[in-house]
User: What shape does this take?
Amino acid sequence: MADREQVSRAALAWLLAAQVIILLPHSVHAPLWLWAVWLWVVLWRWQIFRGAWGFPSLVLRVGMMAVLGGGLLLSYGVKFDMTAMVGLLLAGFVLKLLELKGRRDLLVTIYLGYFVAATQFLFHLGPLAGLYGSLSLIALTATLVAANQSLLSHRFWPSFRQASILLAQAVPLMLVLFLAVPRTGALWSVPSDERAAMTGISNSMSPGDIGALAQSNALAFRVTFDEGAVPPPEDRYWRGLVFSYFDGRQWRPSRRQEAPELANWDRASTAQWRKLLDPVGSPVSYSVMLEPTGQRWLFALPAPTDWDDALGIGHEMRLLRREPVQQRMAYQVTSHTDYRFQAGGLANWEREQELQLPQDFNPQTRARARQWAQEAGSEQMLINRLLAHYRAHFRYTLRPQTLGRNTVDDFLWQSQEGFCEHFASSFVFFMRAAGIPARVVVGYLGATQNPVEDYWSVRQRDAHAWAEVWLRGRGWVRFDPTAAVAPERVEGGLDSSLSSTDAQMLERGFGANLALVQRLQLRWDAFNYQWHRWVLGYDQDQQSQFLEDWLGGDELWRIALAVMSAGAMLVLGLLLSILWRQRPQYAYPADRQWARVERKLKRAGWTRQPGETPRSLAHRLGRSSPSLGRTLAHIAQLYELVSYADNRSALAELRAEASGFRPPKRSLSGANEYL
Amino acid sequence: MRDFVQAIVNEISQVLLGKEDKIKLALACLLSDGHLLIEDLPGMGKTTLSHALARVMGLSYQRVQFTSDMLPADIIGVSVFDRDKGRFSFHPGPVFTQLLLADEINRTTPKTQSALLEAMEERQVTVEGETRKLEEPFFVIATQNPLSQMGTFPLPESQLDRFLMRISLGYPSADAEREMLLGGDPRRQLASLTPRLKPAQLPKIKQAAEQVKTSDSLLDYLQRLIHHTRQSPDFPSGLSPRGALALLRVAKTWAFMHGRSYVIAEDLQTLIPSVVGHRIAPSSAGSESHEHTLITELLNAVDVVGA
Assistant: This one.
């Protein structure tokens, strides 16, 4: 019975190796006791292999499954999300070892293994994960190879070699499938892993939030500017969120700002919104590759004037997406960094919204604001006076004193040290108290260029908060109170604006000070970027672009033609290589020259029998054509000298004779040559 | 050397007309220090050839006519009690000579055959516990009738293998036969042949022949031939390594006899029927033509020129 065939030692060893390889990347999220289960199962399996123990009975197996299920329930809770399901799959994969009786079971387990190996991509998508996935594939295929080999074959590595060769041979096909098969959306969507914590700007801002963010070196997004038109540092404010509602402690978007249906998604309403914006100067085009944020807002330089169709724009000039960004996504934006927005005036509701203040908070600031507003001749003078106040007394630090209930009062008139959110928050509060519409804007400030590839990275440490103030006749104007205290924050990024003790708090990655390590990190980052851009980000648009570039269009016949001609080329190449390998190999130079002579003879109609030596051939042909016989006899003699006497000097003469050899055409009367 | 060989051949041709090729082959066998088997019908000149060779090479020789009632002692010798001296003394048999003509070797019983064959291989005989060296050089030229003839005991394969070459003479050509008919009994002329070689020259010739070059290309051809005999289903048994060595040894002598310092493919082709023939198809009775076909097929099938 084929399905009851024994499992060979090599196949079992490979299966265990493959299991370790497949389980390893899941250690991040799967419960650690799964490893204990695995070890126990392997021990049992080993005892079965030795013949010491038997296979577990049905009752025992059901019991084990129940215990494992219970364990999973305990580890994951009742909520069955993707991680828990993967855990269940892993448990099944491990337990399957105990059911492995014959070859058929082994094959089933291997095929299951391919599926389990694919689940690691639910959690990791980087180039290293891709490499690791290939390793899992090789290990599984090696198991398959070992399973199909003789039971007596105890050797471990030949299967690995063969599996690698097999998979390497499949690579061209894989590339063709990847590049040419039409990209559809996912057939099933993976439920998002909501528990996964994502670093990034959140939907509210209270003191210390952005300061905490500044300590993370994680990537926020990458930007590629078209045609190298990079805006100057003071214009690299990446707008993300607008906070108009303040409850005394926290800044939040207003209810209107939070409602996605109020954003402008279609052409008509967008056109309506565009009337509020008055772009000046030349545009900047760029594409952003955003790391997953789990949020719906996107980042762009103000003011965006053109963007991808799928995106929408909020009333307060923020780009939005319908679904939260769970996967890395790319989008294209054109911005005019010089613009006027809502210069025509604010609607009443809007004015109200941008002047909102919580009732009984920060009385001191309210009073001071009213007083300064009366003393100042204009809004601009009031702003200048406040900025001058910041400049004169404030310190920019990551570790400010804790603030009391009246955060703005404490900050503005007592502690006078803080991070950007303190400055932005107090500035907006003060403006509103003075009767000027203002709001907090949160996003990123700055970008670092990767010199290896032509793109800019924006990291979480670049997170920033600033203010926008509505001035009559000018619309919304950006003011960055932080810049008043630490102007180098705008110019040179976070590092240059902090004291050395503060700077030590920042996450910089290992060996950031070593030039070599830094360069390697940049290279790796660049490679990562390309991987995401060309492998993970290879979608329908990119595909049609690719096909357009290489085939001149993405019609089916072009793809079919390309694949078929590539296949034909491959087959042709194989044929040629086979022919090349089967070409006559002359071990001795004399034989090569003689072959030339013989080819010429053949063309002239004379053939040599295999057993005929050159000399006897000369003798035989000499009977039909004496002159040919004489020439051939000479050649035969040279051949003998070179071939049998190892006479090197005769070789040149033989070569000359062979190339100058012109046998006469064989006449019909020569048919009696055998006589 | 070529002239020297020609002189010998001419000398022998006086008694064996029109058989220069065979004489040369026989000479090559003896110069290669090998034993020769001549197989043919009675009256074809087998004995004449062996006598002539012995004379011309200046060797002492003995002739034994094998019969069915011969015993080993008739060849090797016997110890006889000498009453005068009161002890046994050994009377050496005909084998104690330089050239032994074993006429019609297959007429005798296997027991007697093997006594001779042992002497051929070991170049020594053991009589009553005492080992006696044979003379140096020691050649055996055996003749045998075709196996189909009455009263013959075929030589087994292992013993045929002891003979370096086997040749058959065949009928003389019409011209040669006419000349012979006119000239009278060739046997009488044997006495008039002059020795052309001294036994002391033989080791030198052997040594010189060993210096003959065998190129890689030639060895390739030889190996292709051997391979063919072992692979082809037509051959009952392939050529043994000893057979291959023998072929190469004779080929070197042959090339040396023709004044060449290297062996060519034609040397092998010329010698194969004589050297290989009795080694690959020995046992099938009356199979001379079959064996001939096999050798022809071998030579035709294997390409001389390396691919």
Summary: Residues 1-186 of chain B form a domain with the Rossmann fold fold (CATH 3.40.50.300). Chain B touches chain A through 24 residues (CB under 8 Å). Residues 32 and 206 of chain B are 6 Å apart (CA to CA).
